[in-house]
Write a structure and sequence with these properties.
8 helices, about 50% helix, elongated
Length: about 180
């Protein structure tokens, strides 16, 4: 009797694991089939194996809207000439930023950072860099370029200020179009 219960438990775990892996690899289709397909019959949503309109796709993804740091670091759109990718953060935001980020960190490297969970200063430079690019390229972005620079420098005074400003930049980046 005990071995039968153990076998059932293992079977349930195996079924859950397989269904999770299938969902993560985009194996399931959406109801309706044609939702989300791109024109021309191309594969939509990054699905693997030619599956069209896969859902839910990758279960754990980061925001990749048209204004996020991930978007700007992907090279999907050309950066404005006034803030080239290879420009140093200390040159763009001013010498006060050099104490926290050093003289060699570039804007591209700042937007590519993935270690922003633990440090509010890392999150600040990541989302501040994206906000600066958005200020130059997106009409209707809630911050002007000079505001982004000033707010980032003001937020360097403490971890609390950096965390609060990084959150504001992140919200602006993720909500712009």
């Amino acid at each position: 009797m005990g071995s039968m219960a153990l076998l059932r438990s293992l079977a349930c775990v195996l079924i859950l694991l397989c269904s999770s892996l299938g969902a993560a690899n985009g194996m399931y289709r959406r109801a309706g089939g044609a939702e989300g397909e791109e024109a021309g019959g191309r594969v939509a949503g990054g699905a693997r194996g030619g599956v069209r309109s896969a859902w839910p796709g990758y279960l754990y993804t980061r925001a990749v809207g048209r204004c996020t740091p991930q978007f700007w670091s992907s090279g999907a759109e050309q950066w404005p000439n006034i803030v080239p990718q290879e420009a140093a953060v200390s040159k763009v935001f001013g010498s006060r930023s050099m104490d926290k980020y050093g003289p060699r960190l570039t804007l591209l490297e700042a937007t590519m950072r993935t270690d922003d969970v633990g440090s509010p200063f890392v999150k600040l430079v990541k989302h501040g860099s994206a906000a600066l690019i958005n200020a130059y390229t997106r009409t209707g972005f809630p911050f002007d370029s000079w505001e982004v620079k000033a707010l980032l420098l003001e937020a360097l005074v403490s971890e609390d200020a950096a965390a609060a400003q990084a959150e504001r930049f992140q919200q602006a980046n993720e909500s712009c179009v």
